[in-house]
Amino acid sequence: MKKIAMTTPIVEMDGDEMTRVLWGMIKDKLIAPFVDLKTEYYDLGLLHRNETKDQVTVDAANATRKYGVAVKCATITPNRQRMEEYPQLTEMWKSPNGTIRSILDGTVFRTPITIDAIQPVVKNWKKPITIARHAYGDVYKSVDFRTEEPGECTMTFKGVSGEEHTVSVQKVDGPAVWQGAHNKDTSIRSFARSCFQYAIDTKQDLWFSTKDTIAKVYDGEFKKIFEEEYESTYRAEFEKLGLIYFYTLIDDAVARVIRSEGGYIWACKNYDGDVMSDMVSTAFGSLAMMTSVLVSPDGTMEFEAAHGTVTRHYYKYLKGEKTSTNPMATIFAWSGALRRRGELDGLADLSAFADKLEDACYATLNAGTMTKDLVGLVEPGFPAKAVTSEEFLDAVASCLANKLA
Ligand code: NAP
Ligand code: MG
Prior knowledge:
45% of the residues lie in helices and 20% in strands. It has 14 helices and 16 strands. The protein has helices at 17-31, 46-51, 55-67, 80-85, 96-104, 185-202, 218-241, 250-259, 270-284, 311-318, 328-345, 348-366, 372-375, 389-404, and strands at residues 10-14, 39-43, 69-72, 107-112, 129-133, 143-147, 151-158, 164-172, 176-180, 205-210, 245-249, 264-268, 290-295, 301-305, 369-370, 385-386. Helix 1 packs parallel to helix 14 (389-404), helix 3 packs parallel to helix 5 and helix 11 packs antiparallel against helix 12 (348-366). It is globular. Bound molecules: NADP nicotinamide-adenine-dinucleotide phosphate (NAP) and magnesium ion.
């Protein structure tokens, strides 16, 4: 069989632990036999990040800007415990995802992979709900403090021009806590653009929600910038595709989401996105079935699994045990990147291969061949047999070979 050709490389970011093991297996069994794979490889494994003083992460992000498509394996973000586990680390390196996100000025979109055998807890959800979380500012870049005595807190902005603007936050008659938060127009605008762009690319409606009735200026600015971007740049394309941009208050959005069928993108401010993405992923079933795409305002995309490096399984693997780690989200990161590459380069074969790879995964799961984490989630009446990661990948590979023959 002739392999499917590629013209432009995908930026490939390798990672750590169990997901690094799966990464190699996915490439060997599901991609390399069928695609003449072109990637520009960056090893974001913790030790290589350490050896390059994290330059490799910056290089990988810059390569992503150049080529427009990347696929990333989960990586360790070192903490105190990891510093003990890897004594050779010269620094507690920052989260690679944070570094890449800030270089790409991107927004993260998380989407569950759904199958009939696993019903969402919310029974009327028929299609996936994608959550877009604004990842800058608000409470995550705020300052806060406590005071003991009665008094007044004021907030002052000092402009570079020398002009000052002061407001009274509150007068209090006893101990109190205070918080100062901000966001930037540029960041909100990039967030809006990424959301509209991704809605167009995936042909889904876009919902956006804030609390602008209470935070009239702060959340009002988010609402205004989204409206401006929609009217000036995206409305025509939305109308052509029959898509809807829908703004509503966050509490109204929550009620509508629960009663909806799914099948749209829900853009959330930073805190709302943090909370709601955990709720939505849990209600759909499993973190192991959640994909994640980082999207820049210009449509550059980096695909990955939403879960981490699955450390507990890795330590079993190191002892020689065969693990039943779910590779679905990592496979879908690859299929997402290959499909996007195909779309950008006009390679219909490559995009069709991505579809078939996903179809082969669904067919394998629907036949009841799945990793251990999913078996317990399957509804009565559906087949479900736990296999190892390797057995699952072999089953997908043989199904894929049939589809391509
Ligand atoms: P995790 O790797 O997502 O795993 C947490 C638990 O969730 C696992 O122990 C496992 O449960 C279950 N799980 C997650 N993915 C699974 C899969 N594909 N198949 C089967 N079960 C799965 O989170 P963590 O253990 O908190 O973090 C481990 C490392 O990952 C950390 O060093 C963290 O920095 C990193 N991390 C990286 C990213 C990223 O690169 N995007 C994201 C999050 C975390 P059981 O043990 O019960 O089987
Ligand atoms: Mg959270």
